[in-house]
Structure of alcohol dehydrogenase:
Amino acid sequence: MLAARMHEYYKPLILEDVPVPDIKADEVLVKVTAAGMCRTDVQLLDGYFRKYVESSFPLTPGHEIAGIIHKIGSLVPKNSGFEEGDQVVLVGGWGDGTCRHCQSGNTQICGHGAWPGFGPYGGYSEFLPVPSRYLIKVDKRLKAEELAPLTDAGLTPYRGIKKLRDAGALGPDRILGVFGIGGLGAYAVQYARLLGGGATVIAFARNPEKLAIAKDYGADHIISTKDKSTADIRKELNTACGQGQLDAIIDCAGAPEMIRMGFELLSTAGHYSSVGLVGDQIDIPLFPFVAREYTFHGSFWGNYNDLSEVMALATQGKIRHTVKPITLEQVNENLELLRTGDVLGRAVIRF
Ligand SMILES: [Zn+2]
């Protein structure tokens, strides 16, 4: 099979012919039909995660995967209802099944977890083995290139906004800011409407084309942050919605200057949910954080149930997509575009 693999840090991926993987008895062999390209893949290549975990090579990136069941292991439970030819999506965070996070369903934060796309097998190849409990069957009529991005870009902000909702931070009298309208943010504005309970949704980004997508996908107001101070933004906010503060923020970017601005704009008892990883530090003043009783939510990827909910929304036709289909041969040039933030929506490899 064809695979685009990483053999060392800081080098382009190598397209090569490798053997189709074997499966264990509790696994399913998935034939990849679409794989989304994530900025995380660039960070993986650039060694962003090295201080937390070292990679071993060769590594096949690609953690946003939709595919077809090609072969089913002998110990896969019959009750799963899986059959060869079924369309499936992958839940990305695979836990070890022993810890309390796994037991409560949050396998994506297991301390001994594994992730497709961060080891030998990933979506940048034609096949990969998957433990059957991390597959969700999806209607065959849904398009693979729209399903694949939903397993991370369309899942991560969903969980992040659920945290705001479950904390009571959203409702008709609240203003919800969506920071960064890249791959994740284009979904976040839609979930802001679906889960916001009537909150006013304001999208913030630098790029006018990305802001136009946010407006199209349901943001009540869009605000460009390019070359603007917090005071400028506060004024615009006031004009747009009658208050110069945000009651909640879903941050799909994670750029240090945006985080600082976000906390300057946060209202008393405001909630900040962080899912984007553009920067690698948070530096905010402590006194307002304490005195104004801010709540900060780290939110990582999503679990099986989060993805099931996203798939239900997709099946109901409630999610819109901005997809740029590409071929596996175009993977390296698109990694470069991701690095500079020059992809509108999601680049998705079609097989
Ligand atoms: Zn675990």
In short: Residues 156 and 302 are 6 Å apart (CA to CA).
